[in-house]
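Team,

Forwarding the record for the chain on the shared tracking sheet. I've put the sequence and predicted structure together so nobody has to dig through attachments.
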Amino acid sequence: MKTNKTLLSLAVACSLVSTSAAVNAAGFQLAEYSATGLGRAYAGEAAMADNASAQWRNPAMLTYLEGTQVSVGAIYVNPNVDVKGEVDGGKSMNPTLPKTRASSSDFAHDAIIPNLYISHRYSDELAIGFAVGTNYGMETDLGKDFAGSHFGNEASIITKEVNLNLAYQLNEKVSVGGGIRYVMGEGSFGATAPENNVFGLPQGTALKYMEGEDTAWGWQLGTAWQINEQHRLGFTYKSAVDLKLEGYATGAGFSLGLAGDKRDDGSMKLSLPATAEIASFHQLTNKLAVHASINWTDWSSFEKLEANLDTYGTKMVKVENWKDNYRFAIGATYQVDPKLALRTGIAYDTSAVSDKNRTITIPETDRTWLSLGASYEFTKQLSLDGGFTYIFAKDAPITESRGYKSDDDAQKIGGEFVGETTGNVWLIGVQANYKF
């Protein structure tokens, strides 16, 4: 695995470790908000109230928590994502450029994703909560020696999020909740000259590079319906968050010179998509419960990355044209004895891109999750959760240029890339929960 960069950080108490992030849900979404949910493949989350982390997926679940509770944990992510293919230099502006093997291994970095949650039952009807985590984050780095680097060799979208949530129990069956979200985001995209290029540029010369950062506000709403003592439904919705990443750009692709030593200030708009979840919880016996969920993410809102430069105007960074994504999950919890609970789950994430729109820098594809987990209650106040997941990523083709003008311009420099992406991901999480 390549050396980590310190890009994804969460400003949480206790000086929790922060490292770079890899994508595990669809697009650049991160599902890893708790080790508790990890053990059941995040099945039924909007209807679950295990501990203070429940508010992250549905603030209405705060009304199911007693007293004051604190949950703190982290999830280690080990992705193994590869891309391999070849670049046909003859399909550039210089038909004498050779065909070149293009491959990169483990180019999505491993990560530790920490989290912190606090809940407080203010009265029989009212509960409040505070949460720190992340919903979105990705980083890929194929290296400057990648033969298809003219289409892109690095990309990152990093967010940190703080929530303040409030929930109210309307009656014995219905609870509602909502919260405000403060999101801190940063992003970058880079493309460099490959070894074989029509301009004879040194390998690694910047063709396009832009980075920026911004903060913005969002909101979330949720509700829970306790059908009877054994069955519960939950629904939650998170708003889109519109970021205007302000920073700078450099590179010949932005008309800033072939030497790559000139910069122009500017910004790049990025909308973090809206999401929704409907979930259910069913206590079948005294020991066995099953839970399920369907998640939707408005990835069709992610159409393009475009630079708005102070001097050189509007420049295309990358056309994306994604589509909405759906996630289906089912899980079970078995209470072995009053202290020990076991969990398992399976989930299927549909890809947020068609085969045509898959890119080297974000090699998005379908995923299948297999999860195991457990909780152990050491005392009435203290419990510890653990979760483990293995994700199968479906092998998928990649071709660039995809037919867009900005892709065609890149192809003219170094040729066409044709290949595929393969990979898998390991997730291991731990979480401590304390009740006051």
